[in-house]
Automatic annotation (TrEMBL):
Keywords: Lipoprotein, Membrane, Palmitate, Transmembrane, Transmembrane beta strand. Gene3D superfamilies: Outer membrane efflux proteins (OEP) (1.20.1600.10). It is found in: Cell membrane. One of its GO terms (molecular function) is efflux transmembrane transporter activity. The lineage of its organism: Bacteria, Pseudomonadati, Pseudomonadota, Betaproteobacteria, Burkholderiales. It comes from the Bacteria. The keyword Membrane applies. One of its GO terms (cellular component) is plasma membrane. Belongs to the outer membrane factor (OMF) (TC 1.B.17) family. Its main location: membrane. It holds the Pfam family OEP. This is Efflux transporter outer membrane subunit. It comes from Polaromonas hydrogenivorans.
Length: 489
């Protein structure tokens, strides 16, 4: 009877490693495809060139802007939050890695007492007992669940690092746009001040002419009204510049007097060539976008979470052990006892949990599907942003010559009309019409310059701000993101 039971038991023990090994081979979710066009559909200004954009702001020839960006990044709550998430992700990775290692705990105790029972006429003596020991435990990751959790934590750490760079790029773009807004506002303030001065001079001449009886009161009233309107426009523009300055103070965290001093000197126009230096291959551009990279890492982490949830449905094998020493002292006699043990080697077989583990797997698979969809959407959005920035740059570049020609033509027309008006050969209405068209052209030229700078900042942000991922670049065309751990890519 005994021999009959031994054979199946031995067969079961022999097949156990094979069964556990099969449990460790868990299918991974498929690759995530996110195709992009082989080339940009928008025209590349200056044909485009692959450059390192990490020093893009310093290449603009404006040290004040670079200083403001550095100051804003240092005080930005967005950057600080992203940095905090990096530390949290790093701690989560340490926690996940600890599950793969044995645990070791130390314990110590000291007690003193005696029993109230008596043996004959003599009572039990007082006994002092001291104990110390070490307990170790180790769960063998046979199904790979702990390894999958570590892989997920590692991927999320890489994603958190990329999000930190994305936050820095976002802050830099915001400061640059605000800085350009202030400079454009001041340029418009100069235009409106000159226009107000010109209208005031016309009103002065009209008043003298009215006193001499050469100008009708209605015409003089028109000149004075035009001068008042110009002064109001100049005052409003100056107020808008003050608002832009205060917004820049809030972004940079610098004291307003110090910022005013930095912005007081004449500023050099930034070079435009650096704005349009980008990679001509879409996959190269997307590879240096931190948000696309982070979305890809989240896909890999979600895939690892699926493996971890699946591993929880398989047997778990654990091993424990301990070593200790006990010392007892009574009536001047000391007794020392050393103990050690290895085991038990325990096997846990999940049999019934009401469907909890199966539901965990389904939830992990749903999160993976969501991460994959978000990644594809992020790639499409990245392509759109680059294309839109290129279109804006192309449009502003094409309109720049026309804007300059319009200003030059309207200025010549105004100068001629003003000369005719001073000699009595042109009416005030003709002069005001020429001045109005000149002012509109000058405002349009300044607005076009700001639009071009904003398009350059948008392109800088769209291509990732020169950030380079820590891992190898994505596959050509960003065709797929592997859900496997980073170490295998």
């Amino acid at each position: 009877m005994t021999s009959r039971l031994r054979t199946p038991s031995r067969l079961l023990i022999g097949l156990l490693p094979l069964w556990l090994g099969a449990c460790a081979t868990l299918p991974a979710p498929p690759l995530v495809s996110a195709p992009v066009p082989p080339q940009w559909q928008a025209a590349l200004p200056h044909q485009g060139s692959l450059t390192d954009l990490s020093q893009w702001w310093r290449q603009q020839g404006d040290p004040v802007l670079a200083e403001l960006i550095a100051a804003a990044q240092a005080v930005s709550p967005t950057v600080a939050s992203a940095r905090s998430r990096i530390e949290q992700a790093r701690a989560a990775r340490v926690t996940a890695g600890a599950a793969l290692l044995p645990t070791l705990d130390a314990s110590a105790s000291l007690s003193r007492g005696r029993s109230l029972q008596s043996i004959g006429s003599d009572s039990v003596p007082v006994v002092t007992t001291a104990q110390a020991g070490l307990q170790a435990a180790w769960e063998l990751d046979m199904a790979g669940g702990n390894r999958a959790s570590l892989d997920a934590a590692a991927q999320r750490l890489l994603g958190a690092d990329a999000q930190w760079h994305e936050a820095r790029v976002s802050v830099a773009a915001e400061v640059a746009n605000q800085y350009d807004s202030l400079r454009s506002c001041r340029a418009l303030a100069d235009v409106t001040q000159l226009d107000a001065a010109s209208r005031q001079e016309t009103a002065r001449l009209s008043g003298l002419s009215k006193q001499a009886g050469f100008t009708a009161p209605a015409t003089d009233a028109l000149a004075r009204a035009s001068a008042a309107d110009a002064r109001g426009r100049a005052t409003r523009q100056a107020a808008l510049c003050e608002l832009d300055l205060k917004a820049l103070v809030a972004l940079s965290g610098l004291a307003e007097p110090d910022l005013r001093q930095k912005l007081a000197p004449a500023q050099v126009e930034r070079a435009q060539a650096a704005i349009v230096s980008i990679a001509s291959v879409p996959a190269d551009v997307l590879a240096q976008r931190p948000d696309v990279f982070s979305a890809g890492r989240e896909v890999a982490a979600a895939s690892a979470d699926v493996g971890s949830a699946q591993a929880a449905r398989y047997p778990r094998l654990g091993l424990s052990g301990s070593i200790g020493a006990t010392q007892a002292r009574a009536l001047g006699t000391t007794v020392t006892l050393d103990t050690w043990s290895i085991g038990p080697l325990s096997l846990s077989l999940p049999l019934f949990d009401g469907g909890r583990r199966a539901a965990d797997v389904q939830a992990a698979q749903a999160r993976y599907a969501e991460a994959a969809a978000l990644y594809r959407a992020k790639v499409r959005q990245a392509v759109r942003e680059v294309e839109e920035a290129l279109v804006s740059l192309q449009s502003t570049d094409a309109r720049q010559g026309d804007a300059e020609a319009a200003v030059a033509g309207y200025r010549a027309a105004f100068t001629g009309t003003e000369a005719l008006y001073k000699n009595g050969l042109a009416s005030l209405l003709e002069l005001e019409d020429a001045r109005r068209t000149l002012l509109t052209a000058e405002i349009s030229r300044v607005s076009l310059q700001q639009e071009r700078k904003a398009a350059g900042v948008a392109l800088y942000r769209a291509v990732g701000g020169g950030w380079t991922p820590a891992l190898a670049p994505l596959q050509a065309g960003v065709a797929a993101v592997s859900p496997t751990p980073a170490s295998s890519q």
